[in-house]
Amino acid sequence: MKKFNYTLNHKLDEAYMAKMCGAGWAATRLVEGVWTFEPCRPNQYVYRVCYLRGKRGAEVEDLKRKLAGQGVEFVSRYSFWAIFRSAHDFQLYAPHEEIALCLRIRRPMIPGGALSWIACCAFLRLAVNVSAWFCVPGVLLLLYAAMCTALGLSYTRLIRDLKRRGA
Question: Which residues lie across from 4 on neighbouring strands?
Fold first, then answer.
């Protein structure tokens, strides 16, 4: 079964997979918001998402082998992320590591979003004053700025929630 669900942070991905697994559907793949599921027993698996950016291929393979030795199965990779699952509960990050990871992910979103909004306004102004063709990059920058802003806000909320939980 395939379903579309685009989330704005990795913890929301984990929550979505837990919800679907609770309903008897195990995640097997994710590509740009399109999830693939197969039938399973309700709550058969616990899912975790691992951030891979900056890891070389050999490091990723070592991680997969290490986790496999602990009974954790590699499911799928998407963008800079990998999905793992197991029949038992497991953690990929200590609480302080999770906060540090979220801060690292959010860091470029703030200036990226701000600069994109400024550039978007400049291109839209050029579209009005010079040529309508400037609308094309203006709209693309608008989409990028909106995505950076949404991701930045999502990770800001996640960091706040992790800190509140005493992570």
Answer: 34
Residue-level pLDDT, tens digit, the chain, 167 residues: 999 998 899 999 999 999 999 999 999 999 988 999 999 999 999 999 999 998 888 999 999 999 999 999 999 998 889 999 999 999 999 999 999 999 999 999 988 889 999 999 999 999 899 998 998 999 999 999 999 999 999 999 999 999 998 75
Q: How many CA atoms lie within 13 A of 140 on its CB side?
A: 4
Q: Given 40, 72, 92, which residue is the final one in a domain?
A: 92
> Do 106 and 40 belong together in one domain?
no
Q: Which tokens hold the place of 125?
A: 């102004």
Neighbouring-strand partners of residue 2 = 36
| pTM of structure | 0.84
